[in-house]
Specification:
heterodimer; A: mainly beta; 6-stranded mixed sheet; about 55% strand; B: mainly beta; 11 strands
């Protein structure tokens, strides 16, 4: 049973425009959410996170939005840059000291 | 800088072989994890450990075992490798905190079982 779902396997965006990556979860016990970025042949690196007590967290070009009632979060990247091309994973935790990941979305930024 | 190091970047093993994947972290983290990454399936948790000699099964533990004899080292063992264990294996570590967990990942081991 997939508790964290990223329904878009891939997304293509023009350089300079906004990229929006989406993530849905089913477990209402999740209270912390993270986004990781992964380049080929490398391990994932932490990008940005949000606690369930907030609905928005911003870090430079990256903003994460959380809608608890819809059990939905999204990552906005603006403006998108070629170096943002990677696979993005949404992850959630609920006090069990472990992270549950989504399937990932491959983002391609076109020049 | 947190460092999680996996012993091999690429491995090719034969079906039936016993395979050891080693992971070392240098930040004194209590938690360590083994995930595998497969296309369309994301990162799936195989095993995790929250203390030396302690381990818990993740979502897909079948065919795997783990060992944590020292705090900094967490080993994944494939008792008898099979072709369906061909995958990217990722080790991670994190502090034990009550609020959030930011896991730090190694560079990954691409294992091919032939």
């Amino acid at each position: 049973d997939q508790q964290v779902k990223q329904n878009s396997p891939s997304l293509s965006v023009q350089e300079g425009r906004i990229s929006i990556l989406n993530c849905d979860y089913t477990n209402s016990m999740f209270d912390y959410f993270l986004w990781y970025k992964k380049y080929p042949a490398e391990g994932p690196t932490f990008l940005i996170s949000i606690s369930s007590i907030k609905d928005k967290n911003e870090d430079g070009r990256f903003t994460v939005f959380l809608n608890k009632s819809a059990k939905h979060l999204s990552l906005h990247i603006v403006p998108s840059q070629p170096g943002d091309s990677a696979v993005y994973f949404c992850a959630a935790s609920g006090g069990a000291q472990k992270l549950v990941f989504g399937q990932g979305t491959r983002l391609t930024i076109n020049p | 800088d947190v460092k999680v190091t996996q012993s091999s970047r690429y491995l090719v093993k034969r079906t039936g072989e016993k395979v050891f994947l080693e992971c070392v972290q240098d930040m004194d983290h209590e938690n360590m994890f083994w995930y595998r990454q497969d296309p369309g399936l994301g990162l799936r948790l195989i095993y995790f450990s929250y203390d030396v000699k302690m381990k818990e099964k993740g979502d897909i533990p079948e065919g795997y075992s783990v060992s944590r004899e020292k705090k900094e080292r967490f080993s994944l063992i494939l008792e008898s490798a099979s072709t369906n264990q061909t995958s990217m294996y990722l080790c991670a570590s994190s502090l034990q905190v009550s609020t959030f967990i930011e896991a730090f990942f190694g560079q990954g081991t691409r294992l091919t079982v032939v």
